[in-house]
Design a protein that fits this description.
The protein is α+β, with helices and mostly antiparallel strands. The chain has a domain of 99 residues: Alpha-D-Glucose-1,6-Bisphosphate, Chain A, domain 4 (2-Layer Sandwich). It is 26% helix and 44% strand. It has 3 helices and 7 strands, in the order βαββββββαα. The protein starts with a strand and ends with a helix.
């Protein structure tokens, strides 16, 4: 299932890119309780891997494309789900425009259940984007 999101940020593209690329930051802005741990060394870049824990489930996330500050691709693999995310950041005045495409796939029995979450996922993405925007704006002001 593919979803798109578009949101204007009152923060520079560089700030937003860095915050989204560091999955350890996600608990600070996302309504989804996720714990992230960097498995590879600093600095974060192409090939960086994270362990993410959500609701007792383990996921491994890998940054597959890291072209700061305009393009970030992340692939998340779990026992029941896969998520491929592509995020572009375009400078827009003092801020940036975030555009994202999420491709969520399911494995096993989850393939039967995932379609029932389409409406919830589509409805939640604008809220998550707005929360991310507020987080970026607060960090940019520091």
């Amino acid at each position: 299932m593919e979803f798109t999101v578009r949101h204007e940020l009152a923060a520079p593209a560089e700030v937003a890119f860095d915050l989204l690329a560091d999955l350890r930051q996600q608990p600070q802005w996302s309504s989804t309780p996720i714990e992230g741990e960097l498995l590879t060394g600093e600095p974060i870049g192409a090939g960086s891997r994270f362990l993410a824990l959500q609701g007792g489930r383990r996921y491994e996330a890998t940054i597959t494309t890291y072209r700061r500050p305009e393009l970030l691709r992340i692939e998340v693999l779990g026992a029941h789900l896969t998520v491929k995310g592509e995020f572009t950041f375009t400078a827009a005045g003092p801020g940036a425009l975030l555009e994202g495409v999420l491709d969520i796939g399911a494995k096993g029995a989850m393939r039967l259940v995932l379609p029932s979450f389409r409406g919830a996922i589509a409805g939640g993405l604008p809220k998550e984007a707005a929360s991310f925007a507020r987080f970026c704006e607060a960090r940019a002001a520091v």
